[in-house]
Amino acid sequence: MNHDFQKDIAGCGLTGLISKKRNRVSGGIIAKSLTLMNDRGNGLGAGYAAYGIYPDFADFYAFHIMYDAQSARFSVEEYIKENFHVEKIEEIPTSPVPEIAINPLLVRYFISPLKEKITGPEGEEDFVVNAIMKINSEIDAAYVFSSGKNMGAFKGVGNPSVIAEFFRLEEYEGHIWTAHTRFPTNTPGWWGGAHPFTLLDWSIVHNGEISSYGINKRYLEMFGYKLSLLTDTEVVAYLFDLLIRRHGLDVETACTILAAPFWKDIDDMDPDEKEAVTALRQTYSSALLNGPFSLLFGHKNGLVGINDRIKLRPLVAATHNDMVYMASEESAIREICPEPDTVWAPRAGEPVIVTLDD
Amino acid sequence: MFEIDAKGKHFRDLNAEVREAVDKGEKEISLKNVNGQYYIATGLCGKLDITVEGVPGNDLSAFMDGPTVTIKSNAQDNIANTMNAGKIIIHGNAGDVLGYGMRGGKLHIRGDVGYRVGIHMKGAKRQSSTIIAGGTAGDFFGEYMAGGVLILLGLDSEENAPIVGDYLGTGMHGGAIYIRGPVEQKYCGAEVGVMETNEEDAKILKKLLKEYCEDLDLDLDMVMSRPFKKLIPVSSRPYGNLYSY
Fold first, then answer.
1. A54: which strand partners?
2. Chain B contact present for A308, CB below 8 A
3. Contact status, residue A348 vs residue A208, Cβ threshold 8 Å
4. ipTM
5. Which of A39, A311, A343 has its CB closest to that of B138?
6. Predicted confidence pLDDT, tens digits, chain B (245 residues)
7. Cβ separation of A2 and B13 shorter than 8 Å?
8. Tell me, which fold does domain B93-233 have in CATH?
9. What distance in Å separates the CA atoms of residue B102 and residue B143, rounded to the nearest whole number?
10. CATH code of the domain containing A328
């Protein structure tokens, strides 16, 4: 398709898919879906997250790190080798594309924490999260942009098709994919600011604006998270990590906290539900996401799509056999699934929660 | 019938082809293999018939002034923005923010519609806009409505099942909304009064729905077989004198 036109003013676009039976799908498919919405973004950020792409290293945390300076790589690798067993280090394979003149150094590491380094009450995943926070906030010019097991994020400054070609996305096969094209509004369009935002195997792509960023950021900082990526969406990834992994809540409850029902609707609930939702709103008032959003939340067991409570951003879902698709526009789904079994627009604030069959 | 294959074409290339055909005097244009192209039929004037096969992109028929556009499948968001005249027939569902500030013409949708449908639609004595949706609607139906007629049918819903969302008619100050199903005052904007329909309403509904049923091959008697509620603004124009003193 010809995209050689002066830009229109638009918004972000997102798309995602999941095979509930874990059938693996090439990255070229999701890139095709995202590229249809090329004009929603403006070339200042695109990215993809994929689950199931590293089966040979499934037991290791796959760190994708971007470096703006070679010296940062030395510092990070020194730190990693002190704290982790390193199974493999390699540069992330890329292809030269004319649209990308300058890119950070992109390296991936398959690692596992050294047992003797994990002291005190924290678990292995806390140790990994702390390492990510340390690298991102304390080592200049180095950013961990992906850190889960058997998953990975690929992102940068460019249009959807350019970023897909650059990262050779067709060479990866995953059973869950999310993707995003960005139209930065009030934060910089830089490599680390492209979506997805990830932490461990949580990944977020987001269309909209988290107006509650300041409140959410201060709340997360109380739990040791360090917000270093200059973009509102970062809080969503960390909030899911806090609520699900650390506080042990399920996905549905986490969604109820982030897109909580309005008080007037809580007043109408039956007594038990009213009490439960009131407790959630009161306990987690600082985790409420305010402002317009549609977002996709990928994790090792599934894919979730959710809107803000008054549906200020678009989201369409569709199914076909064991596949579920969600995107900003129905056409982006039909580009890769021309005849879905069902198509619907999820209601505001009501999550679409898809879980792998096994 | 002049055919254009839209497959893989950017919306600017496609819409340039459509305009070229219109300039050459084509009156019936068929767009095949459409998928996601924005702004189809936007700004087009005069008597034209445009048929779309596939899902058209956002901002279909914005500022349109006269043509009839038929969509055989679902359609997306922001249809009929500030449309002035003509008709859009959608055989499937449609998305959010339909008929934003629509000044005239008709939008006939067979299926469900999304949020903020009929937001700030307008109408006057000589020219008025109409939106009719056959399925259900999301929140903010008829928000800030200033004129025209907005009808929701719930054809695929059980009788007495809710077919419209919250914040119904919030900020409404003109026009009328007809809902073929239950309406709870607590889900309406403060400015909205919920009434039973009278004979005059029945006449208006019959006239508008007859054309709707013909467009979408539906039985008018079946559509008219359930009672409607009528919603109109009951505020006293509190800001009417704001700039007068």
1. none
2. no
3. no
4. 0.95
5. A311
6. 999 999 999 999 999 999 999 999 999 999 999 999 999 999 999 999 999 999 999 999 999 999 999 999 999 999 999 999 999 999 999 999 999 999 999 999 999 999 999 999 999 888 999 999 999 999 999 999 999 999 999 999 999 999 999 999 999 999 999 999 999 999 999 999 999 999 999 999 999 999 999 999 999 999 999 999 999 999 766 666 777 65
7. yes
8. Pectate Lyase C-like (2.160.20)
9. 13
10. 3.60.20.10
